[in-house]
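We emphasize that the prediction below concerns an isolated chain of 187 residues; any contacts that depend on oligomerization or on bound cofactors are therefore not represented. The input was used exactly as deposited, without trimming of termini.
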Amino acid sequence: MAAKLARQSDARVLRTRDALRKALLALLEEKPFEQITIREITARAGTGYATFFRHYNEPRVLLNELVADEIRDLLGRSMPILRESDPRGAALALGHHVDAHSQLWSALLTGGSAGTMREEFIRQAKELPRWRTRTRAWLPTELKIVYSVAALFEVLAWWLPRRRYFTVEQVAEILDRLIIAPMTAPE
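Result of the prediction step, given as a token string:
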């Protein structure tokens, strides 16, 4: 009986957290993160104000969780392909993922959370073994990561509002030729 109650509670917790995440995403499409209040998030999520604080101590924590999960998902899809020495395939995987989640990425890159996205992407990228094993002697690894992430975000922020004019394949070529190939090519 206690185990069943725990599962129901867990399911309820997951539903509430999901509702809060979706509410924040919807609000990010309407205005910058700094202008979003907890009351707006909970009203949109259909939860009580106090419920928010059972899960998060402030909206930035919710945003950070959302960003970390999205970046982890993106890296999880593209890095295995890159490890197979298929930069174009990695760029295509990345492009397809961003295209499939274009509202989310548009909101995250332009809704006042680009800095959070950048920091989290850099943090997760530094943990990848690929960056530790392949490096150019003249280029510090940390700078390589920072440059690659900044360039990636600029290309995506440029592309997202122009998706109807530039296909995933075209942006994958841009990502590959401009960012991935120069950073992964042997010296």
